[in-house]
Amino acid sequence: MAKRKTSITNLDPVWDRVRNEAEDIVQREPILGGTVHASVLHHDSLEESLSYRISLKLASNDMPAQILYGLAKEAYAANPAIGQAARADLVAVFDRDPACNFFVQPILFFKGYQALQGYRIGRWLWENGRRELAYYFQMRISEVFGVDIHPGAKMGQGIMIDHAHSIVIGETAAVGDNVSMLHSVTLGGTGKTDGDRHPKIENGVLIGAGAKVLGNIRVHFCSRIAAGSVVLRDVPPRKTVAGVPARIVGDTDCDQPSKTMDQLLREQC
User: Fold this and answer.
1) pLDDT per 10-residue tile (average), the chain, 269 residues
2) pTM of the full predicted structure?
3) Cα dihedral 225/92/140/231 (nearest 10)
């Protein structure tokens, strides 16, 4: 096996680990060498790698990858917090998803992680008044990954979207740090009313598969929403809710359900 190269100057242990794992993939599975080199090993930073991967995925006849690559690099250079969030999201996926064995996997293969990083570029465009381009990112992320996050929505860091099929997050929704959600989650409105009309999800919340959280309500920190629930009212801190409509069925009894990922309806998680 080739000797691992570890950077001393850039002090980026996440990126160093990604590169080392990518080198190992090339050794184990040479047929993926082209993909791994193009997506990871040809780049000098996680930001450059993600810029390439996102642009490749979201390119279309309307918008070539080269233009998207330039936009992504511009966003990362202008706002270093986007790259910091990408690292926090990567660690979150590795820590919480038992199917994730390496840091490099989400970058190459996990559409939830890729969609979230694409959203972050679209969000930067939205904040800088480039609304039409932001809508393009939203459209292509939805078409390619099945994840529809409005660029006006606010997303924290350390977020894991597992499986990431049929995720919908509305324009005025806000999601805090260290939140986990599974497939078919909706953070939506309740009708045609404009203004602030979508849920606010605080830190450490776990949202189960198929759950719908509707309206300008607040899901307080470290709470847990059971799979298939429809939440129409505020959820107090550290409570578990379940049902249609959802009601409180117990306490979570742990600091952050989003990290344990335990969805069983029992007294302790």
Assistant:
1) 45 96 97 97 98 97 96 98 98 97 98 98 98 98 98 98 96 98 96 91 97 98 96 97 96 85 65
2) 0.92
3) 10
